């Protein structure tokens, strides 16, 4: 089954062919699949080696000359390791870039903690002005990547995962999509969590919203979906509660409840597979149904 | 980068090197970084006065030369040179560090006319300069030069070494480093700073950082196919 990351390789190659402002910066990760693009565009596909501070610093420098840089590696090394570069070499310089990560939370469980960055979006939340896309399917990834590449000079983070939904949804960048309507509260599924949320809520009288963009947070979309029952369950494929503050702000004018489900903060010292980790985190359909019903009923 | 709309272009060339101490004296409140400021004075002046092809009139042109002050500590010499060269109004120097001043104790490119980058946290300028050189090259602009000034203590930051190793390997010919060495690095650099650049394929030269002619010759030395580093040695910070 095609991954979002594989689609990213194809889309980026096409963007490089058609938009001279686009440059791709790599730090060894994914260098092989971009080898052909690098041959076609030797000055716009740059692999700096295993140097992630330079990856982001160089992206900032290219943006200062008017380019639209795309920087890509695993989330641990794209956001966490060079976080001061993200803060100072992009935002503080007043320039934008497109950061595209892979292997964010639990994509490579056998790789262990060093290759898990469930806090990436929470970290970006400490900075102003980031757009964050979390697609759940390769088609959505393509839509969001093309939108982000053309999104002026904005700072955009696209989080690609090997965990994906079976089918793509007709998303609009920045907007939540209503998939089911019910009366006992709203369950907001983010990106790859959708299939498990749909299974978990089968037959339950709840609204299911789908988010492939979480920043800016579609506060109007959430408010419109609430009806008379201001109870919200967030199901995010990264650190639990990352969007809780956004949900609270969206509902600040009324009494409400928010439950944030996602990857736990505690380090989970097990290897194995993605399904095993989702089950251990309570993010499979069984675990979600149990927690959602306990909260809303 | 912003430009000084209100500064008359005729102010350029009205100031000479001898005016810089007077301009710097207008700035008070960051005396702890006084040695850091004066260490860069000659290197900055020679660069802006004789080498760098940028003026207030060309400060937003894509093909301008660029100077990135990485060592943002003690920016008084930098602000004085920018004022002397007409990028900013000398009248604002006295506001240094005040709430509404564009002139902080570390420069902010969104506030300081003529400043190419915001700096302060050490080790960010050289990676940004590498990206700037890459960006210009990718747009077919092979003429503009990119200069970045670092300090010998700033050189401790590992991000510099990521950038200099890559730049040497990539042969970024339009990239230039001025490393002002006032012996302030806690553990020093055995074999000298220039040896680190040379080991990564750079052209490198070490000169007296107070000797204007030596600085000029070092800045303008040909370095085909390689980036170029000028180590400007000045009196030790704690002498």
Decide which structural class fits the backbone of chain B: alpha/beta
Number of strands of chain B: 5
DSSP strand count of chain A: 12
Task: Tell me what the CATH architecture of the largest domain in chain A is.
Answer: 3-Layer(aba) Sandwich
Q: How far is the first residue's CA from the last residue's CA of chain A? A: 37 Å
Low-confidence stretches of chain B: 1-12
The gross shape of chain A turns out to be globular
Describe the main β-sheet of chain A briefly: 7 strands, mixed
How would you describe the shape of chain B?
Answer: globular
| Number of helical elements of chain B | 8
Calculate the mean pLDDT score of chain A and round it: 98
Q: What is the H/E order of chain B?
A: HHHEHHEHEHEHE
Task: Please give the order of strands in the largest beta sheet of chain A.
Answer: 2-1-3-4-6-5-10
Q: What structural class is derived from the secondary structure elements of chain A? A: alpha/beta
| CATH homologous superfamily assignment of the largest domain in chain A | Thiamin diphosphate (ThDP)-binding fold, Pyr/PP domains
Count of DSSP-assigned helices of chain A: 12
Structure overview:
The complex is a heterodimer of chains A (297) and B (239). Chain A is of the alpha/beta class. Chain A folds into two domains: 4-159, Thiamin diphosphate (ThDP)-binding fold, Pyr/PP domains (Rossmann fold), CATH 3.40.50.970; 177-296, 3-Layer(aba) Sandwich (Rossmann fold), CATH 3.40.50. Chain A contains twelve helices and twelve strands. In chain A, the strands form two sheets. Chain A has a seven-stranded mixed sheet with strand order 2-1-3-4-6-5-10, sandwiched between helices. Chain A starts with a helix and ends with a helix. Chain B has a five-stranded parallel sheet with strand order 1-2-3-5-4, sandwiched between helices. By secondary structure, chain B is of the alpha/beta class. Chain B is built from eight helices and five strands. Chain B has one domain (17-233): Rossmann fold (3-Layer(aba) Sandwich), CATH 3.40.50. In chain B, 31% of the residues lie in helices and 12% in strands. The radius of gyration of chain B is 17 Å and the shape is globular. The interface between A and B is medium-sized, with 30 and 32 residues.
């Amino acid at each position: 089954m095609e991954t979002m990351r594989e689609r990213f390789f194809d889309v980026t190659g096409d963007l490089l062919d058609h938009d001279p402002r686009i440059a791709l910066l790599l730090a060894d990760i994914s260098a092989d699949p971009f080898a052909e693009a690098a041959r076609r565009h030797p000055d716009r596909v740059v692999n700096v080696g295993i140097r992630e501070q330079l990856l982001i610093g160089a992206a900032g420098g290219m943006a200062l000359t008017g380019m639209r840089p795309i920087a890509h590696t695993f989330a641990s090394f794209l956001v966490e390791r060079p976080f001061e570069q993200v803060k100072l070499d992009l935002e503080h310089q007043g320039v934008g870039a497109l950061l595209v990560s892979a292997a964010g939370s639990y994509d490579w469980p056998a790789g262990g903690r060093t290759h898990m960055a469930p806090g990436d979006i929470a970290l970006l939340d400490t900075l102003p002005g980031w757009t964050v896309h979390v697609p759940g399917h390769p088609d959505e990834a393509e839509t969001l990547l093309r939108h982000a590449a053309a999104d002026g000079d904005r700072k955009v983070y696209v989080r690609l995962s090997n965990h994906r939904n079976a089918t793509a949804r007709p998303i609009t960048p920045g907007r939540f999509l209503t998939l089911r309507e019910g009366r006992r509260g709203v369950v907001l599924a983010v990106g790859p969590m959708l299939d498990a949320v749909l299974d978990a809520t089968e037959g339950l009288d709840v609204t299911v919203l789908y988010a492939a963009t979480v920043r800016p947070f579609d506060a109007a979309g959430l408010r419109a979906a609430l009806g008379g029952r201001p109870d919200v369950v967030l199901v995010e494929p990264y650190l639990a509660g990352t969007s809780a503050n956004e949900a609270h702000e969206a509902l600040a004018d009324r009494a409400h409840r928010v439950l944030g489900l996602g990857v736990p903060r505690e380090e989970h010292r097990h290897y194995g597979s993605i399904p095993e980790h989702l089950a251990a985190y309570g993010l499979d359909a069984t675990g979600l149904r149990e927690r959602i019903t306990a909260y809303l009923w | 980068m912003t430009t000084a709309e209100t500064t008359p272009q005729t102010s350029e060339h009205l100031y000479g090197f001898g005016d810089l101490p007077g301009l710097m004296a207008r700035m008070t409140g960051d005396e702890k970084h006084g040695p850091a400021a004066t260490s860069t004075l000659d290197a900055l002046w020679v660069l802006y006065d004789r080498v760098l092809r940028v003026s207030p009139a060309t400060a937003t042109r894509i093909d301008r030369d660029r100077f990135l002050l990485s060592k943002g500590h003690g920016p008084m010499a930098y602000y004085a040179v920018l004022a002397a060269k007409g990028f900013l109004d000398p009248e604002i120097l006295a506001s240094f560090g005040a709430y509404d001043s564009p002139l902080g104790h570390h420069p902010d490119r969104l506030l300081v006319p003529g400043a190419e980058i915001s700096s302060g946290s050490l080790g960010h300028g050289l990676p940004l300069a590498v990206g700037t050189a890459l960006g210009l090259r990718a747009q077919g602009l092979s003429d503009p030069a990119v200069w970045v000034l670092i300090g010998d203590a700033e050189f401790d930051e590992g991000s510099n070494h990521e950038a200099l190793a890559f730049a040497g390997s990539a042969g970024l010919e339009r990239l230039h480093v001025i490393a002002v060495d006032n012996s302030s690095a806690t553990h020093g650099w055995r074999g000298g700073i220039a040896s680190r650049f040379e080991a990564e394929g750079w052209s490198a030269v070490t000169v007296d950082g107070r000797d204007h002619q030596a600085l000029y010759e070092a800045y303008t030395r040909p370095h085909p196919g390689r980036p170029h580093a000028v180590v400007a040695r000045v009196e030790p910070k704690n002498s």
